[in-house]
Amino acid sequence: MVQEEVNLVGDVKKQADKLKSNLIDIQSVLEDAERKQVKERAVRVWLDKLKDVCYDMDDVLDEWSYAILTWKTGDAEENIHNQQKIRCSFLGSPCFRLNQVVQRRDIALKIKEVSEKVDEIANERARHGLQINRGTDEIQRLISTSLVDELNVCGRDNEKKIIVSKLLAESSQEARDVDVISLVGLGGIGKTTLAQLAFNDAEVTAHFEKKIWVCVSEPFDEVRIAKAILEKLEGSTPNLVELQSLLERVSQSIKGMRFLLVLDDVWTENHEHWEQLKRSLTGCARGSRILVTTRKATVATMMRTNHQINIETLSDDACRSIFNHLAFHERGKDECERLTDIGNEIVNKCKGLPLAAKVLGGLMQSKRTREEWEDVLCSELWRLDQVDKDQVEKKIFLPLLLSYYDLPSVVRRCFLYCAMFPKDYKMNRDELVKMWMAQGYLKGTGSRDMEVVGEQSLNLSQSSIKEIPKEVGKLIHLRDLNLKWCRELVSLPETMCDLCNLQSLDVRECWSLKELPRATVKLINLRHLCIDDSGVAFMPKGIGRLTCLRTLDYFPLCGGGENESKAANLRELKNLDHIGGSLDIRNLRGGGIEDAAEAQLKNKKRLLHLYLFLIEDDNLIEVLQPPSDLERLSIHNYGGIGLPNWMMALTRLQELELSYCFNLEVLPPLGRLPNLESLRLYASEVRRLDAGFVGIEEVENANNINEGEIARVTAFPKLKSLEISGVEEWDGIERRVGEEDATTTSIFIIMPQLQQLIIEECPLLRALPDYVLAASLQELRLYDCRNLEVLPPLGRLPNLESLVLEMLQVRRLDAGFLGIEEVENADNINEGKIARVAAFPKLKRLHIRTLFGLEEWDGIERRVGEEDATTTSIFIIMPQLQRLEIDFCPLLRALPDYVLAASLQELRLGGCGNLEVLPPLGRLPNLETLKFSWLGVRRYTDDMELDVAVHTAI
């Protein structure tokens, strides 16, 4: 007995390795068993036992990994001065080694116990015929035909018309090619039925010389498909067996023929399988068609589909018709009325799936009493009695399980894990992936990370927890520790760093947490460290050893003081080349240039967002070069006079923010960044935006410029959002081609996609360049531009939806603001002309605030046919305005009629002491909110009759 235990202790590593090997084999068996359990209940019971053992195996292997880490740490501390190599033996400190022996013995006994369970279950494996390799398909696939009962099809008339029209339309391909039409949708949604309806349509039958129906299914068997085509074309099955001979025969048979080929239930995404078959179909007559049904959009893409038709779920009425046709068959009127309300609720469970409506309708056909119907309604489908359950499983679940079992084994387990969440639960993608990782569902292969191939989890987020107990270190199986929003948490225990299997630590928004434990560097399996917006002031020294890290969102530098000796510097980032997503580096004035260079940020290829805070000189930022694929860059509190040279090499940059760069006077040619979508310049010393900022040069000789060259001087080609502050001058770019001709063409295309423009705190700015007033502009805000006395013709912006004017010196809003001119001769104006003088055609929100000098807001009264009984305004102004706010315009005397659009829903007027008369607000049919404050109104017009439904505050 003693000898046996000694052998156990000595061979524990060997036994652990063997157990790992068994775990890999069992995962293959699990895949086969999961497929067979659908039809064999005995396999389900065996599978549950096997999964339990798998969890036991996983736990004991975790304990073994933890023990190894503990021993290595102990050896390292014992030999820290002489740096001897760690040895796993029974020699050394007697007390420490004795603990190792005891721990080895305990683990060895657990491994032995689990191994015995595995052996017992393995003996049962043969009885169920399970194989290590992936088993064959255990689910019978229904073979479809072209036959259909049209009388029982509901709610698909429109889809049928679309499909038939595509089949009969002129070919979009060359004469030798065949148009492919793909019907894509969920299993059971009715793709095959629609294909059958189109296949049997009278016009379709008359249009094609031959119609061929092939049920493809899985696997994609080219030989079988070719034989099926030939059988229909020639009337008999050929004796050929070689694919080459069969395809040549197909090619000869369809030569010059206009045919329709339906390939029903296609699954394969293998391009080679399809191309061999398609090549044999060339040479047919123009107008031939291939109609494909598939559950996968990727299949439609692979087959080079000309027309993809996505089949949506049925309406409730159509589902109800299918259900009622079966469920109420041969029932009396009174009985139908008694069960209709329950039937409608059952139909709601079908979620528009015709197969579900059909199967449940058939199930209810045999239910005679209301109680039986209520039992079905109140039960989940898997809780029905055995007979009903069998019927539902076979007719609904089995067809749908085809999609499930088409998934890779790894994806199937991840999919099943989601079933633990409540219905309609919104899952965070990144959190879900971490949980899959913690469960061991995702395994890295080669260079592929677990995250790319997609926890036993302790989630204490949003709790009021103030302290984590020291005993947390004993939870050695813990993978994910989520403490997000624990805002009273002051510290983390050092014992937490004993969690050698921990993969994710989240302390975001733990504002009271000032530092991480020193031993955090022991968490060698940590992949995600999230500390953004916490109180953590520095990273612990040695953090660079955590080379498994994939997420490190925040890296504050110490910058001196009492914590400097235990704080990490920038060079610790050197070996963390796998970090991706966002990285926020704070307090960079505490980082040296040599340390910054050693960080080698450019090697972090997965890094997409970089935030740099508090940099004092140009040299430091120059060595912090990020990877060229960076998508977002923010630089805050920068003391240099110029931006780094590497910035213009960021050709994939989408967002750029420069704020509080107090010495920055000149910008690089940012207009040359081809993918820049958002640019924010705030609180810098840049006083002028000129052609250099746009990234173009003056053209001396424009006579020979052609269309191709015009395209080459496009600046900010993808910019959608621009925020500017502190600028004094903003130069326009006026150089044009053909200036002496009647028609001129600008050689510069600047910000053609701009949608949002915000200009703030530019008190010396006198004018805006024309190019920022792009036709695509949807939102414009002008704030504290006190020298801007005349506004450009903003009414000409065809897509502007929101306009905010605040703290401007504008004294008058007239026709120039609207972008229209007075019409001298209205006699010949027709409907077309009226459309051409529309102003603010899409404006929905107008907010005018603190325009202290605004005195006049001109109305536009010019009309067509003023002498007639009926008059038509030649100006259409703000026809879609929904929200109007006017605050603190003390000199404003009146509002123009055009702001009182019929679409107006909210009107707020305040601080307009000179506004003495209100317009006829009672005529506004859609007004919902009306608020007055601090007005000089002395009387209301006769039309000031407000509906009681309008919310009013006066």
From TrEMBL:
GO MF term (any one): ATP binding
Signal peptide feature range: none
UniProt GO BP: defense response; response to other organism
Keywords recorded for this protein, A-Z: ATP-binding, Leucine-rich repeat, Nucleotide-binding, Plant defense, Repeat
Domain Disease resistance protein winged helix: 420-459
Gene3D superfamilies attached to this UniProt entry: 1.20.5.4130, Helical domain of apoptotic protease-activating factors, P-loop containing nucleotide triphosphate hydrolases, Ribonuclease Inhibitor
The keyword Repeat is assigned to this record: yes
Domain Disease resistance N-terminal: 2-78
Protein name in the entry: NB-ARC domain-containing protein
Residue ranges occupied by any R13L1/DRL21-like LRR repeat region domain in the UniProt entry: 815-933
Regions that span the bilayer: none
Domain NB-ARC: 173-331
Residue ranges occupied by any Disease resistance R13L4/SHOC-2-like LRR domain in the UniProt entry: 469-725
Database matches in PANTHER family: NB-ARC DOMAIN-CONTAINING PROTEIN (PTHR36766:SF45), PLANT BROAD-SPECTRUM MILDEW RESISTANCE PROTEIN RPW8 (PTHR36766)
Keyword ATP-binding: yes
